[in-house]
Amino acid sequence: MESVFAVEKLTTPLEEREDIVTVKGLNKWFGDLHVLKNVNLSVKQGEVVVVLGPSGSGKSTFIRTLNALEEFQDGKIIVDGINLTNDLRNIEEIRKETGMVFQSFNLFPHMTILKNISLAPIWVRKWKKQKAEQIALELLERVGIPEQANKYPGQLSGGQQQRVAIARALAMRPKIMLFDEPTSALDPEMVKEVLDVMKRLAESGMTMLVVTHEMGFARQVADRIVLFDHGEIIESGSPEQIFDNPQHERTKLFLAQIL
Ligand code: ADP
Ligand code: MG
């Protein structure tokens, strides 16, 4: 099937590709709480970066800052050549390029699945209703639930709703997908169907930043893993490096608790 995931799959090796996300010297405070401490991270086009770390270490704040859902006080964030400043136009541009999927699915309960997916493209991308619904249907097929198009979110299982949330984010044709613990709120038997969709999305060439505690997914799908602790990236490397040969004491401690 032709990719409606809207990204061009690059064949050049990862290390030769351009950065699509650059974060330099990022610092953020919530009042007195120094929540992100000199964070540096570059992400290549098509790269899958998994963000690990204990609860409260700043993972969500980091992901949200990339999408301008949180302000930051110091440092630089560049997403696909757009400098994330307080300029509202830049914020709007960056939000168009980044899709976000949260732990809670946040679907509009009073709208059909099809409407949930096609609403933003109609409003923001100015697509005709017919085109938007056509693409919504294709995306529902990609996430494996085309038969749910005319139902309401409350009629779907959690796993199905999260797949709709992914389809909805993809409908805006983002270049980068951000996931913040997308399977944490799901019953165990539904985790796999969501991870499978994310895995296929990764294989289609999408650039992804994924906060997750799913170590199997991290090992199998991540190009790189970064470990947050107390607002800092304490270690970063390939899944093999991180899981089989962690360098930092705190990485070992974290892995010992979770594995
Ligand atoms: P994680 O996602 O790794 O669990 P978070 O980014 O949610 O961590 O939180 C990092 C720290 O920032 C925590 O100490 C949390 O309590 C704090 N924090 C998160 N959001 C806010 C907020 N809106 N206001 C104040 N403190 C916050
Ligand atoms: Mg979090």
From TrEMBL:
<dbReference type="GO" id="GO:0005524">
    <property type="term" value="F:ATP binding"/>
</dbReference>
<dbReference type="InterPro" id="IPR017871">
    <property type="entry name" value="ABC_transporter-like_CS"/>
</dbReference>
<keyword id="KW-0813">Transport</keyword>
<dbReference type="InterPro" id="IPR030679">
    <property type="entry name" value="ABC_ATPase_HisP-typ"/>
</dbReference>
<dbReference type="GO" id="GO:0016887">
    <property type="term" value="F:ATP hydrolysis activity"/>
</dbReference>
<dbReference type="InterPro" id="IPR027417">
    <property type="entry name" value="P-loop_NTPase"/>
</dbReference>
<keyword id="KW-0547">Nucleotide-binding</keyword>
<dbReference type="InterPro" id="IPR003593">
    <property type="entry name" value="AAA+_ATPase"/>
</dbReference>
<keyword id="KW-0067">ATP-binding</keyword>
<comment type="similarity">
    <text>Belongs to the ABC transporter superfamily.</text>
</comment>
<dbReference type="GO" id="GO:0015424">
    <property type="term" value="F:ABC-type amino acid transporter activity"/>
</dbReference>
<protein>
    <submittedName>
        <fullName>Arginine ABC transporter ATP-binding protein</fullName>
    </submittedName>
</protein>
<dbReference type="InterPro" id="IPR050086">
    <property type="entry name" value="MetN_ABC_transporter-like"/>
</dbReference>
<dbReference type="InterPro" id="IPR003439">
    <property type="entry name" value="ABC_transporter-like_ATP-bd"/>
</dbReference>
<feature type="domain" description="ABC transporter">
    <location>
        <begin position="21"/>
        <end position="255"/>
    </location>
</feature>
<dbReference type="Pfam" id="PF00005">
    <property type="entry name" value="ABC_tran"/>
</dbReference>
